[in-house]
What does this fold into?
Amino acid sequence: MIRMLAPNEGSTNDSDNIASAGEKSNDKVPLILRRRIFHGIAGIFGFKRNAGLSAENGYVEFGSLGGETSSSRTLGTFAGVFSPVALSMFSALLFLRVGFLVGNAGLLVTLLQFGIAYGILLFTVASICAISTNGAVEGGGAYFMISRTLGPEFGGSIGTLFFLANLVSSALYIVGCSEGLVENFGPSGIMVGDGPPILPDGRWWRFFYCSMLNVLNLIVCLIGASMFAKTSVVILGTVCVSLGSTIISFIIQTPMEVPIPEGNELVQNSTYHVNGSFTGLLATTLQDNLYPDYGRDYTSNGSPVFFSTVFGVLFSGVTGIMAGANMSGELKDPAKNIPRGTLSAVGFTMVCYMVVSVLTAASCSRFLLQNNFIFMLPINVWPPFITIGILTATFSASLSNLIGSSRVLEALAKDNVYGKLLSFVSAGVYRNNPVVAVFLSWALVQLILLIGSLNTIAQINSVLFLLSYLATNLACLGLELASAPNFRPSFKYFTWYTAFGGLFGTLVMMFIINPLYSFCSIVLCILLILLLHLFSPSRSADWGSISQALIFHQVRKYLLMLDSRKDHVKFWRPQILLMVVNPRSSCALIDFVNVLKKSGLYVLGHVKVGPEFADLETDPTLVENSHWLSLVDHLKVKAFIELTVAHSVREGMHHLIRISGMGAMKPNTIVLGFYDNEEPRDFFQSPESLYRTNLFQDEFQGRSLFPLRKDLSEKQLCGSEYVSLISDILRMKKNVCVCRHFQLLDKTAVATQGRYKYIDVWPVNFFDPNSDDPFDTSSLFMLQLACIIQMVNGWKHLKLRVFLCDGRTTHITDLTDFRNSRSNELRFKQQLHLLRISASIHQVPEWSRLLASLRGGCVLQTSDEVQVVADNISRAYLLNVNQIIRQNSEHTALTFVYLPPPPRVKNSGQYLQCLTELTTDLPPTVLVHGVSAVTSTTL
It folds into this structure.
């Protein structure tokens, strides 16, 4: 005998407590005296009293790693993102290496390489924007975003490589800056002419200049990143003026001979001096420079130049797209600042590079371009413009990367990725400035400077940045393919195509630039992943891990990798157990829940009620299982089947809830049909049904499979037992959804625009209204389900409406009540904004009158600890509520209504009657009660 559940449907501060530490200390110097001495010394160096001193270990803690407050976030889009990104992308390439690119690769290949590079960058920027607009972005920039998406092992390893990339990039731009100094003020420098050199030249002299510039970077970093970000606007303006003078010079300057630097020993020596030619804008010059003619690099001991060499140098100059993301800890609104600033800076620099490349190819001989990388200086209308541009662009870019590397190192220490190995870094933070991280980053940059050659450092820099871009695209691609419900970034131009394009492009170009460097960096990344997996103490539950979302799509052997202890609200999805009495009458509901599951677990559960199992000859579920599998194939739903035999439906439901699923893939939401006395509809035989079929007709025995009950006498599940099912589900800490009127759901009509326009949500407990109802777990659960439905094809055109009812039990009769009501609406609107849910909010004008008719009580009142149904006043109130919902549901395809928890069993009949009156004649309705968090405003 088939039994039925759905009759008609189927960071804390690490400073020690000084007082307590003083009590334990055996030092003869009193604690208060030591504190005064410390603060006196700190005052000499400009440190204020917010720095703490550990009485037990004696080190200074400059501020707190967790101390980022809104007051410290002072930077906007232009100063905090656009300027750092633009300066980083101009860097050493704009004034020092455009001639190297065009002179070797030719204009056409150079433009092609710029197209490839900016294509990769745009795809990666789309991924950066997706992550930065999908939740909270704190200090650590790109590392923070990647680590919180990929988890500690992947995030920590990629963060380490990204830290190294910033170090190499800082060293690269320092070398470029020193090269500009020597070419201007060294022997035969443009700015000294025929006079004696101001700066001597030589390998170690250049290392000395780089060291001095690195020290200057250190001083600025110690003063603070905010100061640099504010001055970066002025620096960018200076660079733009220099760039403008360069463009004007290309156009107005007359032909001239440009000397080749004495340091170019490939074509110069003590007795043989040659010059290059600046021809002005000529078509013949442009034609001569259209195609590749690779030569030798005079700055790298005459090493040959290839396509990969040119692209490595080119890409190293445009790797600054994360400079803005690295400043995330200082940005006012990272979710807005990062996309707007980064995209605008990328577009601006791309146009500038294209224009300068074309003008260079049309006005300079190839000999000049290959043998004088600083050719822009002598041809400028006022050469100091280029000097200023080179020094400001390269120095600011090196400073930006040093700041970024110190922030990433601080974030690694703060996250305890390497345990005690980096504990000293987290100890030295002053006013959110990671002083110790800055010193360590500076020292490592100093070591990298020993390499010397700008073009050699450029290739290492490009490979490391490409790997970090690959990780960013990989993180976003994984989230998109996993269909995580809470991955809904505000940035609308991101798709899995852009993420895959960025991932593929970065991987290919890495090996084109330098296969050896690429292979070594990937091996290092894999080793770091393994080491962090085995030894890292960081196992923060606040991070989440994308692996837990991706394992859902893997084969059976990966099910063992799913661990319920790693469940995280970031990757929550509905895992649904639908209790079905008879699939013949529940096709529409089964199909709808398949849409609602959002790539989660979906189980169709059915209870067969019968005698003792020992009295049966065979297990009846074995025979029916194949029919249910055929049902899944016919309805084209992605569901598992679970059948059980029990003495009662209630007992069988307990079995299914406990045993359905496997590992961490267990149902968290139970869906029931509504209990009423309507005649069930046969979807298999109805002429107008979308599910019409003869598949379930038994031709041999002349009967139908899944036969429907003929009258109410065959209905063996009583109302009190049905209400007990709901109570049992809630006691088992499962979310519950009760669905009614789904026999009316026509998915073809829903998918057709015009007839239905809305999905409605009523976040108020109509049985006991309260002003906090819209903000509790059940209401958030309803919003999440409504948002999931709206993300599915066929439902996307429907608009989400939320009917906000002020839950107070009095009229809004004065100004204070009105302000409170308005405050609740603003609070709810802010919540929708934080949850990234697009919905219109509608107040219900009649709500105050309805509450007044309830006379300050509730539908289910407590008397002697036994809930009883209110009198006719409550029934009239429910009928009026039902009328209001119906009046607003003319074009509604689906309605979500708050499901109050059931009363004690003695009053189950009255409770069921109230639900019936509340939902009479409504569109397909889902009554929802949530018991667990499904989303968060901090994601």
